[in-house]
Amino acid sequence: MALNSYNYYPHNVIKLSRQPRFGEIRASEGIGLQGNVSLSTATDLVSEMLGLRHVPNYAHSYGVSLYSEAFANELGLDKRQQEVVKTAALLHDIGKIHCPDNFFNREIDNATRERYRRHPMLAKTLLSKVKAFNDAEIPEIIAQHHEHEDGNGFPKGLTGTNIRIEAKIIHIADSFDSSITPKYVDSTAYSPQEALDRMQKGAGTCFDRDLLDKFAGFVSRNKFAIVDEVNAKVNGRIREFGKEYNIPTFMIPSIEKRAAKQ
Ligand SMILES: [Fe+2]
Ligand SMILES: [Fe+2]
Fold first, then answer.
1. From ligand 1's centre to the CA of 145, what distance in Å?
2. Fewer CB atoms near the end CB (10 Å): N or C, the chain?
3. Cα(37) to centroid(ligand 2), Å
4. For the segment 41-74, what is each residue's pLDDT rounded down to a tens digit?
């Protein structure tokens, strides 16, 4: 099937009652239409834009949001905080939209790495323009998702208690999902147990030790049943996404590979 770029426009995603008048759009006020756009609609729209840039990163973000939400629930965070964690996780890598093609093709040089390291702050800048995200403090949470307990993370080198719990949850879920998911044709992935063992080496330095222990207990319960559950949901969502935007199947990652070896 021939590629038709027209098919990629996400028209009909949000039906606006009218077009904004010139001057009505101000960053300080969100997009000026925030009363018409719910947090979940804005989240779906923005996250799908990452999907149009790179489908595997959309699949990864969706997986991270499922792990993060379930773990937040396990930790006893209230419903509102669970929603915030889930939303921030779905958008955590939106700043990668700015990365060049060679980043997605794994040809990473210094300039590309530098661009990659900007993705948390770029997400903060972008998402801060929308009131619904600001109200939930999502831009700040996302800005912290690569910070480490010992201050060796980025972009700010925050330490321990200065890092928000929502960001720590996403950081752990992010590393786990990345480790068990082959993102590229022929790339390898770790089993869930191997991924946890590797992450354990960063307990107290890269990750919050207590949260990591709890996460390990949570995901390994019932022989990693949650991994199968998350994989099934992500695979279903990616198939729908491909159909919705008429993305040729060759651009969809071999999603069945998300069924990681146990
Ligand atoms: Fe990231
Ligand atoms: Fe990520």
1. 7
2. N
3. 26
4. 888 889 999 999 888 899 999 999 999 999 999 9
Number of folded domains that form the chain: 1
Give a yes or no: residue 27 inside a domain.
no
Q: What is the CATH number of the domain that holds 199?
A: 1.10.3210.10
Phi, psi angle pair for 75, to nearest 5°: -75, -10
pTM of the predicted model as reported, rounded to 2 decimal places: 0.84
Q: Cα torsion for 142, 148, 154, 158, to the nearest 10°? A: 90
**7 part of a folded domain:** no
Q: How confident is the model at residue 254 (pLDDT cuts 50, 70, 90)?
A: low
Q: What is the predicted pLDDT for the residue at 249?
A: 77
Q: Which ligand is closest to the CA of 62, given by its number?
A: 2
Cα(174) to centroid(ligand 2), Å: 5
CA distance 10 to 30: 20
Which tokens go with 117?
């390291």
Reduce the DSSP state of residue 251 to 3 states and report it: helix
pLDDT for the residue numbered 187: 66
CA atoms of 83 and 78, how far apart (whole Å): 9
DSSP states of 107-136: ---HHHHHHHHTHHHHHHHHHTTSHHHHHT
pLDDT at 168 over 50: yes
Phi and psi at 237, nearest 5°, equal: -65, -40
Give the separation between CA 57 and CA 178, rounded to whole angstroms.
10
Q: Does 22 map to a domain?
A: no
Ligand approaching nearest to the C-alpha of 54: 2
